[in-house]
Amino acid sequence: MKAVFLGPPGAGKGTVAAKAKDYYKVPHISTGDLFRYNIKNETELGKQVKEILASGGLVPDNITIEMVRRRIAEPDCKNGFILDGFPRTIPQAEALAEMTELDHVLNLAISTEEVVERLSGRRMCPSTGRIYHIKFNPPKVDGVDDETGEALIQRDDDKEEAIKHRLDVYNAQTEPLIDYYRKKGLIREVKTDNSKKPEEVFELVVKALA
Ligand code: AP5
After folding, report:
1. Average pLDDT estimate for 119-130
2. 131 - beta bridge partners?
3. What is d(CA 74, CA 118) in angstroms, rounded to the nearest whole number?
4. How far is CA 84 from the centre of its chain?
5. For residue 161, is pLDDT > 90?
6. Atom of ligand 1 at shortest distance to CA of 53?
7. Which CATH superfamily is domain 2-112+167-209 in?
8. Is the CB of 198 under 6 A from ligand 1?
9. What are the phi and psi torsion angles at 51 (to 5°)?
């Protein structure tokens, strides 16, 4: 299965993809996670993109496209992949169309108010990237990862100013992709909100992709 997960920041793309990768037995490729990995390991790419991520802006298309091109050429992607956070601009979508043919584009729709509540309460395990929420999906022990026991962190771009900027960038550059993919007959829509548990959202996603 070759799928793209679209949706505003905080829609739950990463949370759903973490379940979907086991269910569909394909890798979960998050461009945000790839950038954060490079920042943490202080690679050349990490140094280039660190400030961009912290501010909530987009990494230039050429850098992002090349990174994805290399990643989906790896052997574990031969039966498909879930792309989370890519494409985010029309030029990225056009580049992806030249690389491969997609089966589904999932659009996770959610209101702006709920996105802000989700992002401001999100916490993350620094080494595994496992995602929590202080209210909706808390760890078993306050402030630490369930499996590694590490102290959870808040992402730099989950601070108020960066959240606002990310939403503006999403509306201007990424939302047009919904129409782009609708015209190609690839959009599968799932509406989500904070009353639906991640397991319920995942069930809706499986139905939408069936
Ligand atoms: P990225 O990491 O992709 O960030 P994002 O798209 O803003 O998405 P998020 O990771 O914030 O949210 P999500 O939808 O995965 O939600 P989650 O599951 O965590 O990108 C970061 C940055 O990298 C970008 O800003 C940009 O700089 C750069 N970048 C990445 N890709 C790029 C590209 N293609 N081009 C250029 N630049 C790029 O859930 C959010 C919270 O809600 C969590 O706390 C979770 O526990 C909670 N939650 C999840 N589901 C539920 C539920 N059902 N009910 C209640 N709470 C829930």
Report:
1. 92
2. 124
3. 33
4. 4
5. no
6. 27
7. P-loop containing nucleotide triphosphate hydrolases (3.40.50.300)
8. yes
9. -65, -35
Tokens of 174: 């990424």
Tens digits of per-residue pLDDT, 144-159? 999 999 999 999 899 8
Q: Which residue has the tokens 């659009």?
A: 107
Cα separation, 3 vs 58, in Å, equals 21
Q: Evaluate whether 88 touches 173 at the Cβ level (below 8 Å).
A: yes
| DSSP-derived pairing of the beta strands 122-124 and 131-133 | antiparallel
Q: Which residue owns the Cα nearest ligand 1 atom 20?
A: 32
- Domain positions in the chain are 2-112+167-209
* Residue 166 appears among annotated catalytic residues: yes
Q: Where are the alpha helices (DSSP H) in 124-172?
A: 160-169
pLDDT digits (tens, 9 = 90+) for 31-40: 999 999 999 9
CB contact at 8 A, 95 and 65: yes
Q: How far, in Å, from the CA of 32 to the mean position of ligand 1? A: 8
Atom of ligand 1 nearest to the CA of 131: 46
Tell me if residue 13 is catalytic.
yes
- The predicted model scores a pTM of 0.93
Q: What is the pLDDT of residue 156?
A: 87
Q: In this prediction, what percent of the chain has a pLDDT beyond 90?
A: 95
